[in-house]
Amino acid sequence: MDNHYYELGLNSPWMNATGFGGYLPQHNTEESITLGGFVTNPISLLPRSPSLTRNVLRYPGGFMLHTGSPNPGMKNVLKTYAKKWSNLAVPLWVHLLVTTPYEVQTMIQQLEETQCVSAIELGLAPDADAKSQTELIRSALGELPFFVCVPLDSADPAFIEKVAGLGADGVVISAPRGMMMQNGKCKQGRLYGPSLNPQMMAALHRLRGFNLPLIAGCGIFSKIQGEAALEAGAAAVQVDAWLWKF
Prior knowledge:
It is a single chain. The chain is built from six helices and twelve strands. It is α/β, with parallel strands linked by helices. It has one domain: TIM Barrel. It is globular, with a radius of gyration of 17 Å. The protein starts with 13 loop residues before the first strand and ends in a 7-residue tail after the last strand.
C-alpha cells in the first residue's frame, strides 16, 4: 500500500466526508481509525436554510438523505471558526457549495486570507450543465489546492480527464444521488450505505491511470474496506455514515 496521502498533505489516509463532522473535528470518530485530515460541512457564500422537503429514507443496505445543506454562510462560519481552525492538529479541507464562478472566487479569496486552510473541496450543483461545471472548476484555480467532488454515478473516465485538464489537484468520488417513493411522491437525495462499496471499488478500478489522485468518498464502512480501496488505487479514504455507527 503506497503512502500517496503524504502527497496530499494528510497525516493518514483517513478523512471524514463532508456533512459528517460539522465544522470542527470531534472526538467521537470511529475508534479503529485516526483521521489524517478534516473536511468541513458544505459552506455556501450566503446562509442556507434547511430544505422544506428534507428527509431520511432507508433502503436495504443504506439510506437516502436530503437536507438542503443548511449552513450559516461563509462570513458567519469564518467569524465563528477561523481562529479555532488555526489550532487544529490535522489539515483542514473546506467544502464549498457553489453555483457561480463569483461564489467560488469570493470564498476561496476569503479562505486564502485565513492562512489555516490546507485545501478546498468543490461541490458542484447537481443541475449544473457541462459548461457551468467547467467554469466553476476553472474558477477554483488559486493558491490553495482544490479537489472536485464527483458523484459516484458521474465518475466516468471522460469527466475525470476533463477535471484533470482544468487544473484540479484531485477528485473525491462522492455519494451519488438517488430517488425513492414515499406516500406516492418522488423523493430525492444522496445515497449512503455499505451497498455502495462494490460500485466504489469498480470506479477506482475504472479511473486509474489519469495521474490524478482519487479519494474514495462513499461506501466505506469498515477498516478492511478502506484498506481495500487504498490497495485499489485510492490516495485517501473518506468515511461518511460509518462515523454515525450505522
